[in-house]
Design goal:
Layout: E1 12-18, H1 24-34, E2 38-42, H2 53-66, H3 70-73, H4 77-84, H5 87-108, E3 112-116, H6 124-131, E4 135-141, H7 144-154, H8 158-161, H9 181-200, E5 205-212, H10 219-228, H11 244-247, H12 257-269, H13 272-277
Parallel strand pairs: 1-3, 1-4, 2-3, 4-5
Helix pairs in contact: 5-6, 7-9, 9-12
């Protein structure tokens, strides 16, 4: 019997903190188009569906349960494990993801793996931090009210991808039982930023970049972020900003006066201690779409 092949792990890892709906697809394209040594993976593993129509929906559910599972993606049991503090389980899932990253990078002859996913900081980060002792870190920052409106346009189940706001391990615990769906997404935006700060100050981060989504339409600004992350790159050519809501046939994100009222209500619920940490919100002034 042949001995199993050794897995060549990537030399470097960069993880991305993201609320979702904040430019992950565009960021992935910037890296894969311009950084020769890096492989950027956008919310992998994807369910590799081959059957059409209704059969494809059935195949996707089966593959998410048994092949490219929800756990490997970073949801399902991962969210529950993070909430109860089972970092051993999270480390086992992360080790499988690291092995997958090694195979992808080896196949593409790349030495840097960039994980671009909203699921990383929702629980898998606690496992990855055990398996990958040193790593780069980027956060994609979208206007929080526009981010909320984009999610509401998407019409997804909030709790499929997020823990409850009152979960004991959260950085920002909110116990209000009457949080509106939009407020849940505002809470998730704040929670992701606080987890980013927690990771940034963990002592494991080698390079860091805070990337506002408006920078994804600016080659000069992206060059600065690549330098911050120590990503040698080719001359940058503008990457058209992708809007996956529009690509899916949904409406454009247009912030309304009602969205602003919901934001004000949410801000009035935030404890003072949270506002001290969320310095990015101190001068934030959302505007109704023109």
């Amino acid at each position: 019997m042949n001995a199993p092949k050794e897995i060549a792990f990537p030399e470097r890892f960069i993880f991305t903190v993201a609320s979702g709906r904040c430019g992950q697809a565009s960021f992935t394209e910037w890296i894969n188009c311009h950084v020769p040594d890096a492989h950027a993976a956008f919310e992998e593993p994807h369910a590799r569906v081959r059957l059409p129509g209704f059969l494809g929906d059935v195949e996707r559910r089966v593959r998410r349960q048994f092949v490219e599972t929800d756990e490997l993606l970073g949801r399902g049991r991962v969210l529950a494990a993070y909430a109860r503090g089972d970092d051993g389980y999270l480390a086992r899932v992360a080790a499988k993801r690291v092995a997958m990253a090694g195979r992808w990078c080896a196949a593409a002859n790349k030495s840097i793996y960039v994980d671009v996913s909203k699921y990383y900081a929702r629980g898998l980060h606690a496992g990855f931090s055990r398996v990958v002792p040193r790593f780069g870190l980027a956060i994609l920052l979208r206007d929080p009210v526009a981010n909320m409106r984009s999610f509401l346009n998407r019409g997804k189940d909030f709790f499929k991808d997020n823990a409850r706001p009152d979960a004991p391990r959260n950085c920002l615990r909110m116990t209000d039982p009457d949080l509106a769906k939009g407020e849940l997404y505002l809470w998730a935006w704040c929670e992701m930023y606080l987890r980013y700060l927690q990771l940034r100050h963990s002592g494991q981060v080698t390079h860091v970049a805070e990337i506002p989504t408006r920078d994804l339409d600016n080659a000069g600004r992206m060059a600065e972020h690549f330098r911050a992350l120590d990503l040698p790159h080719r001359p940058l050519v503008r990457v058209p900003v992708r809007n996956t809501n529009l690509e899916a046939g949904r409406g454009a994100t247009a912030v309304s006066a009602e969205d602003l009222r919901l934001f004000e209500r949410f801000m009035n619920r935030l404890p003072a201690s949270a506002l001290d940490s969320l310095s990015v919100l101190r001068t934030y002034a959302p505007q109704v779409a023109a």
